[in-house]
Amino acid sequence: MQNYIDEALKEFKSIFSRQSSWLLFCAIIIGFMGSTEMIGVTSLCRFWMVNEAGYHRLLHFFRSKAFSYRDLLNVWQKWVVRQGNAFEVSGRKVLLGDHTAAVKDRRRMPGVVSMHESSETQSKPDYFRGQCWGAIGLLIGSLSNCFCCPLQLEIQQGWEAVEIRSKAA
């Protein structure tokens, strides 16, 4: 298993401009795999026993120009398809897509917009603040034992407001 993970991580080395950035990427991936909780960067800090300064370094990595998100996404998608585990129907791979709205209380989070609640339940408000996420994944395995491996997950609404504000600044 260790060799498999090592070979998989080496696939991503070419998209990083510096060796240290790639090593930090590897530490983040291993931290996500080994962490017992998934609450973001805090989970990584607990897994690696990192202090507050390390927390801020990890946050900086996710905003770093040492790699391109699009290049990372491209390498990930190609790597997943190359594994050869995709479920096929009539010789075509099966992709699954979905979206969800996530309620967010923070005011300065990226992509947070006012959204209309379409539920007919009276206990929910008509509008809420949140993010609209869209996902696409590749179905892998067999028909009796399948799994959707995520290929891309991104915020679908709200970026226009973020881009307008950043251009005005």
In short:
With 169 residues, the protein is α+β, with helices and mostly antiparallel strands. Helices cover 41% and strands 25% of the residues. Strands 3, 4, 5 and 6 form a four-stranded antiparallel beta sheet that branches. Strands 1-2 form a two-stranded antiparallel sheet.
Global structural class: alpha+beta
Low-pLDDT regions: none
Instruction: Give the SSE string.
Output: HHHHHEEEEEEH
Count of discrete domains = 2
Average residue-wise pLDDT? 83
Distance between the termini: 48 Å
**Strand proportion:** 15-25%
Q: How many runs of DSSP E, i.e. beta strands?
A: 6
Q: Give a short account of the largest sheet.
A: 4 strands, antiparallel
**Helical content, roughly?**
40-55%
Shape: globular
Radius of gyration: 19 Å
Number of helices: 6
